[in-house]
Give the backbone structure.
Amino acid sequence: MFFEDTIAEVGKFMDSGGPVLWAIVVLLFVMWTLIFERLWYLRTNVSDDVQGAIDTWEARKERKSKHAHQVREKIISEVSLEINTNMMMIKTLIALAPLFGLLGTVTGMITVFDVMAFTGGGDVKAMAGGVSQATVPTMSGMVAALSGVFDVRDGCCTVWCIRHDLR
């Protein structure tokens, strides 16, 4: 009973936001999938990659020449590339979420203006659906962006610390 009521309420919420809200949901799903993948990597595999880079460097007999330092930079760059995989995509999705919310605002206001043109502007109840379609995606886009901002900030700090430790 509770599960069915919850599904019905989520369905009403999604209907009130219009089609742009579905795009925000897909964006949010992709964003959090990538974030969880990065978290999983940073919690499990990054230490193996860092240790492998350190072992590769320490296995070298000669570490003082310019060539050796270039090899060291290459090793650090390879680990950095692996650590930073998908970070730019996550940041892009975070930046797109409010823009999708803005798109929802525009489509909702177009709906309001269509209702005003059809009814002559006097039917407030008819305009309420368009106003809802304008505000719900805006709020959802902002919440989607904020949900990723804090995690990406923590992830970037972790990445920076790991890269600093490698140097």
